[in-house]
């Protein structure tokens, strides 16, 4: 039942439910959130509902205008130790404070990024039975598909499915000799992380 209290909306339901069993059933289905959409769900499953008060939206254009996604410029990467240390610091700061960032001058051609997005879209549009063959929680596999890496640990599931494509122990390197690792998600088209060669 929904209720409002001091400008906050709370979601609460007095009926009991076994979250652990519902999470396990969802994981065992191996269809992910895309499979729920394809099945035509009309109500969000409880495992995706936050049990905390949600602050009602208030229009504050000043707050929105103050937001700026961190942009990290890789142009100086590998030129000097100081520039590289600054870039690493920027990545650390953006990761800790935002959880994501945009990279510019990364040397990945637009056509390659477009092809990656096409591949992700193609994968997610396949029949669920095809995708189930890749649905694993084994982090040692080179290619897996699943939903919510922390599904069994988090108090609330996130609305996302993820492809993990690990190219180690011999991942490709960019022109600066850095290894490239790719994580593909449905809510963020792709995240490319660059790490120093061993």
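^ Assign residues to that structure.
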């Amino acid at each position: 039942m929904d209720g409002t209290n001091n400008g906050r909306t709370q979601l609460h339901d007095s009926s009991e439910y076994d979250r652990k069993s519902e999470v396990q059933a969802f994981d065992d289905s191996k269809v992910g959130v895309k499979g729920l959409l394809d099945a035509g769900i009309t109500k969000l499953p409880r495992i995706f509902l936050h049990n905390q008060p949600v602050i009602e939206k208030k229009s504050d254009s000043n707050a929105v205008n103050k937001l700026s996604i961190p942009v990290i410029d890789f142009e100086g990467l590998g030129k000097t130790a100081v520039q590289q240390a600054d870039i690493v610091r920027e990545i650390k700061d953006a990761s800790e404070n935002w959880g994501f960032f945009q990279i510019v001058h990364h040397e990945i051609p637009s056509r390659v990024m477009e092809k990656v997005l096409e591949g992700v879209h193609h994968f997610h549009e396949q029949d669920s039975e095809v995708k189930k063959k890749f649905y694993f929680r084994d982090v040692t596999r080179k290619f897996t598909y699943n939903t919510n890496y922390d599904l069994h640990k988090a108090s609330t599931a996130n609305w996302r499915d993820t492809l993990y494509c690990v190219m180690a122990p011999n991942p490709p390197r960019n022109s600066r000799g850095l290894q490239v690792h790719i994580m593909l998600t449905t809510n963020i088209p792709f995240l490319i992380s660059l790490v120093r060669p061993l």
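The helical segments are 19-29, 32-38, 61-66, 81-97, 110-125, 128-132.
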